[in-house]
Amino acid sequence: MATHNITGKEGEAFARQYLEDKGYRILHCNWRYRHKELDIVASDGKELVVVEVKTRSDNYLVSPLESVDAAKIKCIVSAADVYARKFNVDLSIRFDIIAVVKYADGYRAEHIEDAFYAPLRK
């Protein structure tokens, strides 16, 4: 497996543990619908929380947050819509981003709650 893939998997595991330590209940990891994927689907007791995890090494050129563009948001929202229908979710949905950066001494996470909203349909 390529180094960036290993870093990504380790970053997702770090983000999962981070959320569990904050009291979130993890419902699914890497949930797929066709070619779309939700990295982490969790509940904080009040909302369904869809978390996009972006992991980078400390020498990254593009920040993890900048890599979540409009096209990526559209895919996440679309997959979350399918998820909510499939599992009969009766909670509001919040979209978070966890930016994980790998340093020589370990990982650090920045959790952005309500990082984006579902775009309005035209």
From TrEMBL:
InterPro entries: Restrct_endonuc-II-like (IPR011335), tRNA_endonuc-like_dom_sf (IPR011856), UPF0102_YraN-like (IPR003509). Keywords: Endonuclease, Hydrolase, Nuclease. Transmembrane segments: none annotated. Signal peptide: none annotated. It comes from the Bacteria. Pfam families: UPF0102. One of its GO terms (molecular function) is nucleic acid binding. Belongs to the UPF0102 family. PANTHER family: UPF0102 PROTEIN YRAN. NCBIfam families: YraN family protein. This is UPF0102 protein F5613_002731. The lineage of its organism: Bacteria, Pseudomonadati, Bacteroidota, Bacteroidia, Bacteroidales.
